[in-house]
Amino acid sequence: MSKPQEPQRPLFPFGNPFRALSPKGSRLPQSLVNTLNDFEESLAGRLKLLEPKVAGDVLSLSWLELAMRSLCDTHNDIKNLISALDLPVCDWEEKWVDVYLDISVKLLDICIIFSSELSRMNQGRLLVQCGLHNLESHSPKGCVRARSSLDGWRKETTSKNPKIDSCCSLLDGLMQSLDLPKVKNSAKGKVLMRAMYGVKVQTIFVCSVFHAALSGSTRKLVEINVADSFPWAASFSNLRTSVNDRVRSGFASGRAIICKELEVVDANVMKLYPIIQDGVDAGEDGDLNETIAQLSKGVESLSQALESLTKGVDGFFQIVLLGRDALLCNLRANSTASHQKVGANVERLAV
């Protein structure tokens, strides 16, 4: 029997690690302050743009694609910030590296799971498209084949992807990573950890909404409370409240399919199925022709949304993977250089 889920604990349970970005009696160089301010202002603006304008927007593949694009931009920003800090990996504390590598592998796993669910959705779309193609023959056999394809769609939409459940433990692990390592005597390190906190908050939030939309469950929607000392705190709080409330409202209404584009297709499939049950001639039934037209339009919209979202998830996967590879290569290079230096010193001592 699985253990009952513990209520999510408020952040920061360990106190605010960012109360001061530098040791007492010292001040952060203005260049570092400017770098951090630019990053946090960009993050605040990005979070504001994600706030849905219409109630149904958040429960759609198009909003998820917008959220994934925003997440890619934030991860590119942190990469640029690290370059601007000019903080070599050899100067990173070991615990920072461990946290980064742990987070990155969890994100790669989450991307793979999301991609598998999007692939399953696309398989269902192909079944509907096949059904529409069979109806073009205007024959009894075409109707039989179309019904078979629509049956496949209904099975796909009512079944659950078991891989989605494995996201829960990954999201739990990401939540735990918000407890940042302490930074000692490093102004650049403090800036890096503060910026990384913003990246992690947005990443966890977006992934939790993805999980809700793809799994049909709100149990992993996060309620992260960000300290007011962050310039982007208000933007995130408004976004979190707006999105989470609308997602929960959508689930409470009893919608069988959460994503808007899928729901439109399913509604027309359910309308079409009984019409072709008795092999009606498509050329003689006005309702049938109208339903087919609406279904074709819905399938086209779903196809475009799935393609864009799949590209977005793949793009995020590549950003995380490349960042991880770059860090590992840098660590190996530093390790090799260190060994070579030790070897040269030993040789000099021998001479």
Q: Any descriptors?
A:
351 residues, mainly alpha, 10 helices, elongated, disordered C terminus
What does this structure look like?
The protein is an all-alpha fold and 351 residues long. The protein has one domain. 72% of the residues lie in helices and 0% in strands. It contains ten helices and no strands. The protein has helices at residues 30-50, 61-85, 94-135, 140-158, 162-165, 167-176, 187-215, 233-252, 260-275, 286-350. Helix 3 packs antiparallel against helix 10, helix 6 (167-176) packs antiparallel against helix 7 (187-215) and helix 9 (260-275) runs antiparallel to helix 10 (286-350). The longest helix has 65 residues, at 286-350. The radius of gyration is 25 Å and the shape is elongated. The model is unreliable at 1-26 and 337-351 (pLDDT under 50).
